[in-house]
User: What shape does this take?
Amino acid sequence: MKLDDYMKSYGVKKSVNDIPLGNYIPNELKNIYLEYGGVELPFGEIFDYETMMKVSKEPPFAKEWLAFGKDNLFCFWVCKINSAEGDKIYTTWDHEMEKEIGEPVFENIVDFFYDCEKEWDDFDNLNSNYDAVLLKYDGGLSMLGRIKKDLNLNISSKDLLIKSKSLPCSLGAVPYEIVEKLKAPQYDYLKEYLEFNKI
Assistant: This one.
């Protein structure tokens, strides 16, 4: 996905910024600042140019990194300067947990933002529960047993069978960790039978 498409998915509009961008700034970050400097995303913010330059003069950023934003958990978004084309240049830095900035992990900003978004979703949903709704049932008891086991449902097999007679039906609440676990390929069969609604 391109950066413009990613930003559109959050309703972020382009803005033309006339700013003096030095040669040491990677091209992709230059483009971000020319079109999206100072914007907010649901999981963090891209600093405006002045803030980026001010923060980036402080240790441990000075001369090696640009702090171009932060997430909602106050980890800085950083970009390695003076990098070669194709190098990994983006990472995060938690100033409360790490003394030094680690190695860059991402080559492009969209992959970096996806990762930041996922981290925020995981944190934001830690205490969330989801209603597991049975949409379809083909009559096989073994399938109900498998669903019960995979969702770690606290319901008797008899009650589960009774509920399955009237669809769609709620099977009960499952925690976020279970919903995330079920995204693994071995649980693809569940997509045919269930949906999860955040409570």
Summary: The chain is about 35% helix and 20% strand. The longest helix spans residues 109-124.
